[in-house]
Design a protein that fits this description.
The protein is mainly α and about 550 residues long. It has helices at about 5-30, 30-55, 60-75, 80-90, 95-100, 105-120, 125-140, 150-160, 165-185, 195-215, 220-240, 245-250, 260-270, 275-280, 280-285, 295-315, 320-325, 330-335, 340-350, 360-370, 390-410, 415-425, 430-445, 450-475, 480-485, 490-500, 515-530.
Length: about 550
């Protein structure tokens, strides 16, 4: 008899003996001995899994492990009294042990999934929720990603069995479940893990289907609405994670909708989520089912990004908008025709997917912003008086900072130029004072001298435009002319900005592109001298021309 056969027989014998003793102890009422023999059963399995890990791919040892796992399945799933006792005693601990076999082979993964399926169907669903959560928390890592598959499959079953307090139970499970998606995203770029990552996302979407079934079973409308809200948050978080996968985002180049995105988008109307509510943030803000734990901030960030991505996918792929029961042209017309709604959407886009998302996503974002800002000034309702700029400005500042990052990291000049053009167009949505304050804040706080230089050119253009408006107003209504003269772009404010650029508060030379520092500083100084020689009738310094070379 070969050594491998001896090892198999020894392991099988120890496993059967532990199962038999566990049953006998249970029947005699010896709780302590029952627990001891149950641990021996688990230890046999753990030792076999460990031997495979230490064998560095030895096929015979892997086959041994598979046979031992098959025997464990036969013992645990047996319909005889011993099988029932084993199932009851091992419920909380068995999932964490058997998932260690998943990495050994596809056959082991299938056996593991069948054991977990049986446990989810016949064990207490409360105990299985705990057992699956513990197992997923301990096995969800980059090295053991495939171990999550049978556990996620188990959640699709056990969620359907929840009868009492479904809102509380499901809401508590989702942060744990979504960890698998976060780990999967981190591995998405690895070609060796492509198949596993795809299956992880499929299992996560299958869980959303189970949640929807639970929701449909509710007879109390309040419970149903609450579950829909939770499902909506889960859908948006999952959409944010799925969109990080480069292979999925690549579909945007062909305006082709991936199956995963279609399935998630189909849930949006069911959850009461609309494109206008998502892009303005209203549908997210009214949702109160945020888990009060350490992951709340990250979770909220994913939800808000998912809300924007849901609209971006609909904008890029008509099929996605169709399954979401949305018309993207209607959305754009609504935003283009109402400035307060447009500004609300722009402020919410501070959550815009930036450098942590593939280039295709960032390009689509810029294109969508460009479409939103293609408002006809004649038909756009200008309702500045309804906009609380003091409240919205910080969010817009965050948006502009994200847009700066997008501009800098665009791979070619044409894309950078387009992205910066959209940034300038977005700035033009702000009234003069807010626009000046925004430019000042962006220039002073910019970590990228090249972008700061571009923003200074925007200030120069604003100065030129304002002086042209003042010139046109000469001889016309004096009130209209006074209004133009009050803009910060031709008051002492602009000189203060120049001073801050020439003499940074922290000292040192101006932080401008290295290859032209001296030239830029000379231009700025000339501009400052020229500006200080010009005064309007209120005594403010005017800057009629910003050197054309800048």
């Amino acid at each position: 008899m070969e050594h491998s056969d001896v090892a198999v027989n020894d392991s099988l014998h120890l496993l059967r003996e532990a199962a038999s003793l566990c049953y006998q102890s249970s029947e005699s009422g010896d709780i302590k001995q029952t627990e001891t023999t149950a641990k021996e059963f688990l230890n046999v399995l753990a030792d076999v899994a460990k031997s495979v890990e230490n064998s560095q791919g030895n096929e015979q040892i892997s086959e041994t492990a598979c046979r031992v796992l098959q025997e464990a399945r036969a013992l645990v799933t047996s319909s005889d009294p011993q099988g029932q006792v084993l199932l009851d005693v091992l419920t909380l601990d068995l999932p964490s042990v058997i998932v260690k076999f998943v990495e050994i082979s596809e056959n082991c993964r299938g056996i593991c999934e069948s054991i977990i399926t049986h446990m989810c169907e016949y064990c207490s669903h409360r105990e299985m929720m705990f057992a699956l959560s513990e197992a997923l928390s301990s096995s969800c890592s980059n090295e053991t990603l495939s171990s999550c598959l049978p556990l996620l499959h188990g959640f699709t079953i056990v969620i359907l069995r929840i009868q009492r307090r479904p809102v509380e139970n499901i809401n508590a499970l989702l942060p744990i479940i979504l960890r698998a998606g976060k780990v999967a995203v981190s591995e998405a770029a690895d070609e060796d893990n492509k198949d596993v990552v795809a299956r992880i996302f499929e299992k996560l979407i299958a869980i959303s289907t189970s949640m929807r079934e639970v929701c449909n079973k509710q007879v109390v409308d309040e419970k149903k609405d609450q579950l829909r809200s939770i499902l909506g948050l889960y859908t948006l978080e999952l959409l944010a994670l799925v969109s990080k996968d480069g292979s999925i985002a690549a579909s945007l180049n062909a305006s082709k909708a991936p199956s995963l995105v279609l399935q998630l988008s189909e849930l949006l109307p069911y959850c009461g989520l609309s494109y206008v509510g998502l892009i303005t943030g209203r549908d997210v803000e009214v949702n109160h089912f945020w888990n009060d734990d350490g992951e709340t901030v990250e979770s909220k960030s994913l939800v808000y990004k998912g809300a924007i991505l849901a609209v971006l996918w609909g904008y890029a792929c008509k099929e996605v908008a169709a399954v979401a029961c949305e018309n993207i042209d209607t959305l754009l017309k609504g935003l283009q025709s109402c400035k307060s709604e447009r500004i609300r959407a722009l402020s919410n886009m501070k959550h815009v997917p930036s450098l942590d998302y593939p280039l295709q996503i960032r390009n689509t974002c810029i294109e969508f912003l460009s479409a939103v800002l293609a408002a006809d000034s004649a038909s756009s309702k200008d309702d500045n008086e309804k906009i609380d700029w003091s409240f919205i400005t910080p969010s817009l500042f965050a948006l502009f900072q994200s847009m700066q990052s997008i501009v800098i990291h665009m791979p070619d000049p044409e894309q950078r130029e387009k992205a910066f053009s959209v940034l300038k167009k977005t700035l033009s949505e702000l009234p003069p004072q807010q626009r000046f304050d925004m430019l000042k804040g962006l220039i002073i706080n910019s970590n990228h001298p090249s972008v700061a230089s571009l923003l200074i050119s925007v200030v120069k253009d604003e100065i030129d435009r304002t002086f042209n408006d003042v010139s046109k107003a000469e001889g016309q209504d004096s009130n209209n002319r006074d209004l133009h003269l009050q803009t910060p772009f031709i008051t002492g404010d602009v000189l203060e900005l120049v001073e801050l650029i020439l003499k940074p508060p922290k000292g040192g030379p101006p932080d401008l592109p290295g290859q032209s520092d001296a030239r830029k500083q000379t231009i700025l100084e000339c501009c400052q001298i020229h500006a200080s020689e010009r005064c309007n009738r209120n005594g403010f310094f005017l800057c009629e021309y910003w050197c054309q070379e800048f």
